[in-house]
Write a structure and sequence with these properties.
The complex is a heterodimer of chains A (320) and B (267). Chain A has helices spanning 17-34, 48-53, 72-86, 97-109, 216-226, 235-239, 270-273, 292-296, 305-319; strands at 3-7, 10-11, 14-15, 36-42, 58-62, 90-94, 114-124, 127-134, 139-143, 150-154, 171-175, 184-190, 203-207, 230-233, 260-264, 281-286, 299-302. Chain A is α/β, with parallel strands linked by helices. Chain A folds into 2 domains: 3-175, 3-Layer(aba) Sandwich (Rossmann fold); 198-319, TPP-binding domain (Rossmann fold, 3-Layer(aba) Sandwich). In chain A, the strands form 3 sheets. Chain A has a 9-stranded mixed β-sheet. Chain A has a 5-stranded parallel β-sheet with strand order 14-13-15-16-17. A two-stranded antiparallel ribbon of chain A has the order 2-3. Chain A starts with a strand and ends with a helix. With 267 residues, chain B is of the alpha/beta class. Chain B has 6 helices and 15 strands. Classes of the chains: A alpha/beta (320), B alpha/beta (267). The interface between A and B is large, with 84 and 84 residues. Strand 9 of chain A pairs antiparallel with strand 14 (230-234) of chain B. The structure holds flavin-adenine dinucleotide and adenosine monophosphate.
């Protein structure tokens, strides 16, 4: 019997939001004939309840202490055991630091392919078919697999998580597999961010190279603060050292889909769009009316941000 | 150290979307008029990492490998002009339309043919298919540990210490050599070849190896044997419905925008 294995991930000891999105995707595939949904998580069996309430039919917990390092090489044998045990022929991971690393390592070790950063998934004739962006977001490709299991990483914010339903039931079992750790983790440091997490923020105000000055991010932070949102940046701005890479929006940064995305002095390269095109409403502030960001936005101001943003802050304060 | 760097030639990822076209029937990108292909932007960073490591180590050899069309020789030449020593171009008609997985198999075989290595450096992903799987693949195929998305690499005796970029911070890891490390843009700007180095690079050798030269069987290559068959390739449609906010001054435009956002319940 085919089935779907969701490889969950944790953040600060709890199930990370992307895992619930993966379960949402897996339930859709299940309804299309994809079979039952098993979740694998590296951690204690107690994490199973949250996965079941969000859509897993059963949970396999990898309880070996070695898995805590989170490196792909220690996780591959554990996930492989979970695939064997569940009989899954579809394996879903998130397109996160964790999934970017584990997805390819797992696929090659199973002599199958992985499609990275998928935005659409469906079961077609009993097999998985996915859609993903490529060429920096300029094109879309659809893929199927030659072999099994069919491994895919899913772009964050592409699927909705299901509401937790405490009435759902399922079993949780444990496995002890783990790989040899050749790569040793010496330390991990968290980027310092104040306020709302970029991925969860209802409003994101992002700045680009056109700001011309790292100090201008203070102004954007004031604006995002007023709107109870978070501040992001284009890669050009991050590469210049103006803002931390953890706040980068785009293909090689974060995917956000806030209700409102305000892009200040960002041209709208396809690779930036790949991280924010799912925003409900986009506002562009750009002195170039032909900029791509202006074209995709709902509202745009074509002018110098240095004059626009302070006035916008003042007016929003008045409206508050 | 003996370092192998893998570089890929790709269509310019900065190609504006207005010039980006796809042949949907052939499932191929149509090269944009007047926009030359470039080296995948992360790959010069991998080359830079190789050169810096050997400079710090007091010597060594850097071999550059690229799988691609005849024109991919330019990607190799670029790395040679930066300071790499030798190049290998994997070129064969059967490589047309192969996927990242078949590419990993071919690169792994080529690396075995090159022989000894202490370190393999690659880019974090190639900006054509945006997959980021080849470094892991070559690692699995050669049985060598892989560290991805590096912003800094330091050699420490028989191992490398690597600082990785994570979604929400950084991680420092140590991997025994030989290892594979994929390099990200946070590594910093690669050096720009000077004219003299470009002239010197012209004298460096670039060997050309076919599928048969690296022992790649017919069943391993060719678009028909893709691990991830390509069913469709197209350009997504984007419609523009923008409302440009007017006003006599930037300040007035800002006030009008705030009112519009409030009316639309966006703030
Ligand atoms: C493989 C790859 C991955 C990438 N990943 C990402 C990614 O994840 N995220 C990302 O953002 N980019 C990414 N990029 C880079 C991307 O291609 C662009 O180079 C980048 O997004 C450009 O950033 P920008 O819009 O800030 O700068 P620019 O393109 O330089 O745009 C600056 C804008 O500011 C405007 N401007 C200038 N002055 C003013 C002013 N005073 N007032 C108002 N407007 C002004 C200009 O009109 C212009 O539109 C990637 C590229 C590659 C090749
Ligand atoms: N055809 C190729 N020739 C040489 N190196 C490649 C090739 N394809 C991928 N690579 C290497 O693998 C990295 C990641 O590519 P990918 O996994 O295809 O996104 C690139 O940055 C290159 O270093």
């Amino acid at each position: 019997m085919p089935g779907i294995l969701v490889v969950a991930e944790t953040a600060d000891g709890a199930i990370a939001p992307i895992s619930f999105e993966l379960l949402g995707a897996a339930r859709q595939l299940s309804a299309q004939g994809g079979g039952s949904v098993t979740a694998f998580v590296a951690g204690p069996e107690s994490l199973g309840a949250a996965l079941i309430s969000h859509g897993a039919d059963s949970v396999i917990a990898g309880t070996s202490a070695a898995l805590a390092s989170g490196t792909a090489e220690v996780l591959v044998p554990a996930v492989t055991a979970a695939i064997t045990q569940s009989g899954a022929d579809v394996v879903l991971l998130g397109q996160t630091s964790f999934g970017r690393d584990l997805g390819p390592a797992l696929a090659f070790s199973l002599k199958t392919a992985v499609a990275m950063d998928c935005v659409e998934l469906k079961i077609d004739g009993g097999r998985l078919r996915v859609t993903r962006g490529c060429y920096g977001g300029n094109a879309r490709a659809e893929h199927t697999w030659k072999a099994s299991p069919q491994v895919a990483t899913v772009k964050p914010k592409s699927f909705d998580a299901l509401e937790a339903d405490a009435g759902r039931s399922g079993s949780t079992s444990a496995i002890a597999d783990a790989g040899e750790a050749r790569v040793k983790v010496l330390g991990t440091s968290k980027a310092e961010t104040t306020g709302v997490r970029l991925e969860d923020a209802p409003v994101v105000v992002s700045g680009g190279r056109g700001l011309g000055d790292p100090g201008a991010f203070k102004m954007l932070e004031e604006l995002s603060g007023l709107l109870k949102g978070a501040t992001g940046a284009s890669r050009a701005a991050c590469d210049l050292g103006w803002y931390p890479p953890s706040q980068q929006v785009g293909l090689t940064g974060k995917t956000v889909s806030p209700g409102l995305y305000i892009a200040v002095a960002i041209s709208g390269a396809s690779q930036h769009m790949a991280g924010m095109a799912g925003s409900k409403a986009i506002v562009a502030i750009n002195k170039d009316g032909d900029a791509n960001m202006v074209k995709v936005s709902k509202f745009a101001i074509v002018d110098d941000y240095k004059k626009v943003v302070p006035a916008l802050i003042e007016e929003i304060k008045k409206l508050a | 150290m003996n370092i192998i760097v893998c570089v890929k030639q790709i269509p310019d990822p900065e190609t504006p979307s207005s010039s980006f076209k796809v042949d949907e029937a052939a499932k191929k990108v149509i090269p944009a008029q007047g926009i030359a292909p470039v080296v995948n932007p992360f790959d010069p960073q991998a080359t830079e990492a190789a050169l810096r490591l050997n400079e710090a180590d007091g010597g060594g050899k850097v071999t550059v490998i690229s799988l691609g069309a005849e024109s991919a020789r330019d990607a190799i030449k670029h790395a040679l002009a930066m300071g790499a020593d030798e190049g290998v171009l994997l070129n064969d008609p059967s490589f047309d339309g192969i996927d990242n997985f078949q590419t990993a198999v071919a690169l792994a075989k080529a690396i075995q043919k090159v022989g000894e290595f202490d370190l393999i450096l690659m880019g974090r992903s190639a900006a054509d298919w945006d997959m980021g799987v080849v470094p892991s693949g070559v690692g699995q195929l050669l049985g060598v540990p892989v560290v991805s998305v590096a912003k800094a690499i330091e050699k420490n005796g028989g191992s490398v210490k690597v600082e990785r970029v994570l979604d929400d911070g950084f991680q420092t890891v140590e991997a025994p050599l030989p290892a594979i490390v994929s390099v990200s843009n946070e590594f910093g700007e690669p050096r720009y070849p000077q004219l003299r180095q470009i002239m010197l690079a012209a004298k460096k050798t670039v060997q050309i190896w076919s599928a048969a030269d690296i022992g790649l069987g017919a069943e391993e290559t060719g678009a028909a044997n893709r691990w991830l068959p390509l069913e469709a390739l197209y350009v997504p449609k984007v419609e523009s419905n923008v409302e440009i906010i007017e006003g006599d001054s930037p300040e007035e435009k800002a006030r009008n925008l705030a009112q519009k956002l409030r009316a639309a319940k966006l703030i």
